[in-house]
Every structure is written in C-alpha cells, then in structure tokens.
Amino acid sequence: MSRLIEGFASYKEPDIPPDKTLVGMPIGTRLHRVYRLPHGWRLWLATNDFRYGTFIELFDDGRVLHCTTRRDEGDDIFWVRPSDATIRNQ
Q1: Taking the CA atoms of the chain, what radius of gyration do you get in angstroms?
Q2: Please, are residues 87 and 62 in contact by the beta-carbon 8 Å criterion?
Q3: In angstroms, rounded to a whole number, what is the distance separating the alpha carbons of residues 45 and 68?
Q4: For the whole model, what pTM was predicted?
Q5: Residue 79's pLDDT band (boundaries 50, 70, 90)?
Q6: How many other CB atoms sit within 10 Å of the CB of residue 58?
Q7: 18: which residues sit within 8 A by CB, 6+ positions away?
Q8: Which H, E and C letters describe 31-85, residue by residue?
Q9: Where are the domains of the chain?
C-alpha cells in the first residue's frame, strides 16, 4: 500500500505547451474592474454600469470565456480557451 501512495506522490502532471498558456488581448484594452467569483475571476474590459458590456471570465480549471452583454441586442458569448485537463488530454 505504501508503494501505491509513493507512486501518487511522485506523479507529475504533464506540462501545458507554452502556446496554450497565453490569451491575447487587443492593444489598448483597459481593465475596469476585477471580481472574484466562486468559480474564478471576472475581468470587466468595457462597461459603464458593470451589467452590460464586455468581460472575460477566468475559471479556476483554466477555461476562459469572453462575453459581451447588450441591453437591446443578443449577447455574444464564446469560449476562448478550454480547460487545462482538455488540453492535456488532446
């Protein structure tokens, strides 16, 4: 049993390739506010009231979601990056 525990202790997860660790941002983008959420962080990039506008959510598991909410039109939501586990298993 102790050999099994030693095996788990010595296990190292595979590294994520460097090109998968960056998220590009347009030049001149300002950060208006940062919120800590139960599952990660919300970074407001463009907003007047912190209800409508553009934000990025950074999840604790490595996922990145880009969201633009508008008062009169539909929302634009897309995934910028999958989770770390998904990248490792590809």
Answers
A1: 18
A2: yes
A3: 10
A4: 0.76
A5: very high
A6: 19
A7: none
A8: CCEEEEECCEEEEEEEECCCCCEEEEEEECCCCEEEEEECCCCCCEEEEEECCHH
A9: 29-90
